[in-house]
Amino acid sequence: MNDTARNTPPGVPIWPLRASLVLSGVMGGLGVALLAASAHADPSGMSGTAAEMLLFHAPVVLALGILAELRKVSLVPLALGLLLIGLTLFCGDLVSRAYIGLRLFPMAAPTGGLLIIAGWAAIALSAFWIRPNRV
């Protein structure tokens, strides 16, 4: 099905919804896998923390994709990007330290954490930029 084959006005992209469906599914699956792995192979608990972050944020990524599809909110793509980059850095660093004993780079996890916080701030600020839905 192409982007114009559904019941939306012409020119309205559906890639944010598709991307958020894929990414939230991957995040959920990785979160469950990391929780299982942490129960058996990670005494530090760092991969469990990464798993929880992925599982907590997977529904948020999906909701942002839906919001981007339903409304034109300029900060939603920014929030989505900040969350995804932040989660990649934060979770990637924790998993790397837990299983191979190396950091991604110095301050990767704190940088990721700050980007996640900035993503949540962008979500909050997006309330001021919601445009009316035009049919």
UniProtKB/TrEMBL annotation:
Species assigned in the record: Roseibium aquae
TM helices/strands, residue ranges: 15-37, 49-68, 74-95, 107-130
Pfam families in the cross-refs: DUF423 (PF04241)
Keywords noted in UniProt: Membrane, Transmembrane, Transmembrane helix
Entry superkingdom: Bacteria
Keyword flag Acetylation: no
Name assigned to this protein: DUF423 domain-containing protein
